[in-house]
């Protein structure tokens, strides 16, 4: 029938008959059967459609097999639809288009039934979904428009109702448990019988309805919001909250803001406690280990929380950083937080300080360096730390050189070698000083030197530039002490002709064997500062001296001699008697050896207040000026010409150790203009040129 020439070729009639046969069957048998299944017979409608679709698939297949010759030649040569496609098209036009809305509605009712917790026939649903997919004739157009779009609307409506129900009665954690369960169920449901391309769209609708549209309410809910979870350490609930809100675009921003605010409030509560203690005189203003420990514990707690339960997300890292930047730069009283954490470092590194193992101290040092990074005035911490390091090293109070070097290396890793160069120089000086001392001991054993100094003398030679600046009182040494100084100077001149030494008598120590002739003769080994020892030896003859006579004898100024004598006659160990006997040293006082001095210990250490203030703030300010000047010159040398605002902004960006205010930078610019490093541009007063 198909191979004859016209008019005996019947291909066209056969093709038409193929379409008529399928169309007639669909109109007479399939469509009436489906139209008879209306709601509430939703399942029956789907089952009928599934049966009719299976029959149509079989019929379409065999019709194509019977008339394959048409497909091979006639269809191809006349650009017609292949028989299989034609059969599907008839089903789409005559059946699918007539009942697709009712079928989709029936499916959505069944989906909601399953969402309510009932069991449904998922195989049937998957088979009906395949009908929608096939009706796209090679694409998903029919599925997307006829099933997916109504599904998204239905999903939005369902979870919109659920949201209102849940949020009215549930706490935030309970609500989030339900929301998480719903999202997991929707994902599993799409995988079970919908097209996988719908997954992201369905989940997005659920996220919008269950999370985005009530995010603020959930985060701030009284009694169970984010702050309450943080306060009660509900880490599991916080982790769930993080995971759910992380699904939203910028969904973590509000949560991170609350975390920052909460951490800040915890830190500020520690500051308030410290303030109250200072007012009640329960805490020393310049040393508060409990306060520092509280800050360290708070920081460690929320670092661990962010790492373990908030995926170490950058937003929460920044929240922690911002919160602690506020906390660490909020000082109470006259002592800054920089001083307090440095003083706590001093306790850790000082022999006899905190009773901790070396590993524990290392852990604490790491934590302190983390707090240090939040300080705005890192240079001030550096100056305090350097002063305390110097005291530990000079007084041989350091618990471990390895720990000292470890701390310095930690600071160096954070802010660079310029910050720690002097500290490293101090450590190196001590190594060199030990070598000097060994050589000096050998020098003392020379035949020409053995009889010249009977004292056991040890000298530390230090580099002036590495160490903090100290007062250098001129002291007229007693005859008993002078030979030791003379001998070391002979040794040093012989080995270091180009270098000059300056004696720092305010830093040295001396051991004096003192015998007191009271009712009974008693001897003590006194450990003293060099200045105390010199003052004590002035009374070797047992005579009474006035303040002025003592000042002349030692060649010490009043402001130096007063604290020295106060330590000897007004402190715990009164080895010198003062007339009149009171706790204040005046220039009219008279002094004599205290024949009544007694102590149960043979060895007595007499402390003395330092002649130097803890931190040279003037030096810090000078160093800042130098740093700002250097930064300005570097920038202008590179840029040649730059406006005032841009120059200030670049300087602020470069300043790592401290954050100067705009006025300080302007002052340094004026100074550079006066010294002709810069000039004002002809284009305007707010533009500068670099002068080579």
TrEMBL record:
UniProt cross-references to Gene3D superfamilies, sorted A to Z: Cullin Repeats, Cullin, Chain C, Domain 2, Winged helix-like DNA-binding domain superfamily/Winged helix DNA-binding domain
An example Gene Ontology biological process: ubiquitin-dependent protein catabolic process
Protein name: Cullin family profile domain-containing protein
Chain ranges of the Cullin family profile domain: 336-569
PANTHER family reported in the protein's UniProt record: CULLIN
SMART domains: CULLIN (SM00182), Cullin_Nedd8 (SM00884)
Alphabetical list of InterPro entries matching this protein: Cullin (IPR045093), Cullin-like_AB (IPR059120), Cullin_CS (IPR016157), Cullin_homology (IPR016158), Cullin_homology_sf (IPR036317), Cullin_N (IPR001373), Cullin_neddylation_domain (IPR019559), Cullin_repeat-like_dom_sf (IPR016159)
GO molecular function (one): ubiquitin protein ligase binding
Record's keyword terms, sorted: Isopeptide bond, Ubl conjugation
GO CC entries: cullin-RING ubiquitin ligase complex
Similarity field: Belongs to the cullin family.
Cited Pfam families: Cullin (PF00888), Cullin_AB (PF26557), Cullin_Nedd8 (PF10557)
Organism: Triparma laevis f. inornata
């Amino acid at each position: 029938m198909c191979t004859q020439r016209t008019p005996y070729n019947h291909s066209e009639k056969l093709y038409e008959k193929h379409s008529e046969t399928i169309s007639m069957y669909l109109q007479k048998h399939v469509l009436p059967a489906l139209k008879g299944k209306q709601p509430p017979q939703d399942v029956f409608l789907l089952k009928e459609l599934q049966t009719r679709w299976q029959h149509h698939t079989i019929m379409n297949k065999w019709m194509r097999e019977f008339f394959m010759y048409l497909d091979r030649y006639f269809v191809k040569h006349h650009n017609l639809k292949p028989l299989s496609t034609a059969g599907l098209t008839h089903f789409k036009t005559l059946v699918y288009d007539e009942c697709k809305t009712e079928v989709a509605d029936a499916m959505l009712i069944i989906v909601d039934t399953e969402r309510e917790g009932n069991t449904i026939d998922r195989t049937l649903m998957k088979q009906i979904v395949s009908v929608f997919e096939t009706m796209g004739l090679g694409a998903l157009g029919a599925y997307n428009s006829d099933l997916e779009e109504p599904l998204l609307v239905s999903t939005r409506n369902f979870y919109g109702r659920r949201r209102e129900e849940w949020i009215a009665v549930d706490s935030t954690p309970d609500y989030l448990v339900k929301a998480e369960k719903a999202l997991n169920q929707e994902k599993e449901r799409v995988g079970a019988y919908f097209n996988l391309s719908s997954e992201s769209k369905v989940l997005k609708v659920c996220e919008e309805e269950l999370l985005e549209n009530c995010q603020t309410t959930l985060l701030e809910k009284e009694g169970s919001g984010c702050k309450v979870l943080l306060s009660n350490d509900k880490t599991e609930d916080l982790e769930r909250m993080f995971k759910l809100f992380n699904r939203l675009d910028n969904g973590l921003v509000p949560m991170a803001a609350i975390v920052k605010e909460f951490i800040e409030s915890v830190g500020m509560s520690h500051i308030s406690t410290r303030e109250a203690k200072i007012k009640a005189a329960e805490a020393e203003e310049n040393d508060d280990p409990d306060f520092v420990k509280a800050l360290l514990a708070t920081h460690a707690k929320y670092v661990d929380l962010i790492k373990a339960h908030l995926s170490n997300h950058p937003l929460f890292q920044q929240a922690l950083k911002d919160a602690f930047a506020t906390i660490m730069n909020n000082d109470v009283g006259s002592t800054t937080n920089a001083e307090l954490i440095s003083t706590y470092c001093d306790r850790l590194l000082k022999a006899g300080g905190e009773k901790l193992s070396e590993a524990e101290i290392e852990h604490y040092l790491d934590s302190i360096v983390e707090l240090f990074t939040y300080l705005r005035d890192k240079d001030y911490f550096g100056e305090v730390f350097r002063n305390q390091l110097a005291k530990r090293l000079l007084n041989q109070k350091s618990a471990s050189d390895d720990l000292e070097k470890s701390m310095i290396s930690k600071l160096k890793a954070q802010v660079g070698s310029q910050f720690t160069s002097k500290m490293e120089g101090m450590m190196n000086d001590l190594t060199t000083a030990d070598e000097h001392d060994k050589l000096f001991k050998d020098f003392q054993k020379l035949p020409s030197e053995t009889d010249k100094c009977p004292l056991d003398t040890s000298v530390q030679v230090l580099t002036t530039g590495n160490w903090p600046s100290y007062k250098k009182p001129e002291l007229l040494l007693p005859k008993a002490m002078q030979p030791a100084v003379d001998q070391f100077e002979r040794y040093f001149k012989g080995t270091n002709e180009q270098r000059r030494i300056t004696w720092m008598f305010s830093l040295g120590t001396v051991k004096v064997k003192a015998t007191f002739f009271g009712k009974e003769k008693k001897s003590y080994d006194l450990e003293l500062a060099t200045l105390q020892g010199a003052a004590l030896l002035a009374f070797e003859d047992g005579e009474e001296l006035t303040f002025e006579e003592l000042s002349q004898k030692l060649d010490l100024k009043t402001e130096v001699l007063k604290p020295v004598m106060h330590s000897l006659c007004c402190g715990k160990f009164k080895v010198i008697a003062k007339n009149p006997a009171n706790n204040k040293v005046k220039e009219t006082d008279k002094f004599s050896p205290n024949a009544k001095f007694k102590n149960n210990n043979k060895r007595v250490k007499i402390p003395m207040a330092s002649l130097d203030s803890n931190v040279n703030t003037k030096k810090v300010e000078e160093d800042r000026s130098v740093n700002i000047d250097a930064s300005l010159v570097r920038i202008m040398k590179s840029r040649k010409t730059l406006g005032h605002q841009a120059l200030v902004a670049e300087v602020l960006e470069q300043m790592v150790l401290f954050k100067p205010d705009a006025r300080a930078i302007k002052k340094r610019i004026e100074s550079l203009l006066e010294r002709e490093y810069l000039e004002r541009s002809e284009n305007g007063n707010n533009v500068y040129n670099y002068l080579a």
